[in-house]
Design a protein that fits this description.
GO terms for molecular function: aminopeptidase activity. By secondary structure, the protein is α/β, with parallel strands linked by helices. It is built from 9 helices and 8 strands.
Length: 318
Amino acid sequence: MGERYPAIEPYESGWLEPGDGQEIYWETCGNPQGRPVLYLHGGPGSGAKPGIRQLFDPQAYQAVLFDQRGCGRSRPLADHAGVDLSVNTTAHLIRDIEDLRARLGIERWVVTGVSWGSSLALAYAQAHPERVVGIVLAAVTAGRRRETEWISNGMRRIFPREWEQFASLVPAAERAGDLSVAYARLLADPDPVVTQRAASAWCIWEDTHVSLAPNAGAHYALKPPVEQQVSTRLITHYWGNGSFLDETPVLENMHRIAHIPGVLVHGRHDVSSPLDTAWDLHQAWPGSRLVVIGDEGHGGAGMTAAWIDALDAFRDLS
């Protein structure tokens, strides 16, 4: 299966300024004359890490990466309770993608995303199908409330002890509701002690459910406090608002991209995002192929290898 390509640096980078106080960092790497491909990171709030450049054949692809609003190298960061999140929605992100495409002079591109980035990739493709030549998704999500409520509430059935600790910050009367909404309220508290305690608790819960592997190590809980604040504030903002997809649900609009070839790569042991979402999308998408990695969860080396294989196969799409 596919191996990561050698590490490379961008040949160009810059800032997109949509006029609402945001500065969106972007970069391009690989072959300036190659097949354009857009990468959409997860989270929301994870940012486009440098290692992602190694997914793309540098001889064949002109890879475009950017940090979504409020995170990574984009500004302002969503790192404190006073930040304005009203201009940070899925519709804003879709407009940013189109603005970036136009700025770079790209007519059509392959779109790839992971986790939340797969939901955004599908929403973008459905809004602008004429701009998308192919889609590759990993750790597949569709932005449905049932998916995010499963993570914040439903997984109590699997991790009852850890969930009780996670929910303990929320008043007992609110624990039956959407905990992402309750946590968003905590993260909006003017007291930084309250917000950091909430961010830390959310990250510990993320580490609990993101892998079923025995003795899986911490990841989110080890992030610096600023990164914890950014990621948890954006995650709860999006999840508490149905990923801003209630009026344009991805699954119900798959007919808009039925003709576009796509690959969905998903881990069979992904408890955070169970396989049924990838399966439902595949069933509604005649142009898609579903690749199930039997020994992976919400990520892993096997998933990355299959992801690279899928991208390699899309290099020569017409």
